[in-house]
Amino acid sequence: MEWRKHVRIVYKAIRNVIPNAEVYITGGVAEDRLTVKSDIDLLIVLPYTSTFNEAVELRSRILEEAEKLGLPLYAPIELHIIVDAPPI
User: What is the set of domains in the chain, with CATH numbers?
Assistant: First the structure.
């Protein structure tokens, strides 16, 4: 399926920008509920604390890198960036 190709490209872009981040597929794709209208949700867990503005910048850098790697503009990718918080 084409969505897998898109995920591979974005995963590589994430690795190029944030080598130590954890990456998970979430949402409908992960739950095998993929439809024509589905987007591909990727959860990126940062290994460090980040501000909102830094997360926005990381998102831009990842998408720019993914574009360089061949991700088409129409690819329905949604990036969700969080930090790995210590247990309470």
Answer: 2-83 (3.30.460.10)
- Exposed/middle/buried for 50, CB within 10 Å: 0-12, 13-18, 19+? middle
What CA–CA distances, in Å, run from 68 to 20, 71, 72, 73, 77?
21, 7, 10, 11, 15
Q: What angle do CA 77, 29, 43 make, to 5 degrees?
A: 55
The kind and range of the H/E element at 79 are strand 77-83
Dig out the tokens for 87 from the structure: 């247990």
| Residues 46, 83 contacting (CB under 8 angstroms) | yes
Gyration radius of the chain over CA positions: 13
**Per-residue tokens: 38:** 């589905």
Please write the tens of the pLDDT for every residue from 35-77. 677 788 999 999 888 899 999 999 999 999 999 999 999 999 9
Please give the model's pTM, rounded to 2 decimal places: 0.86
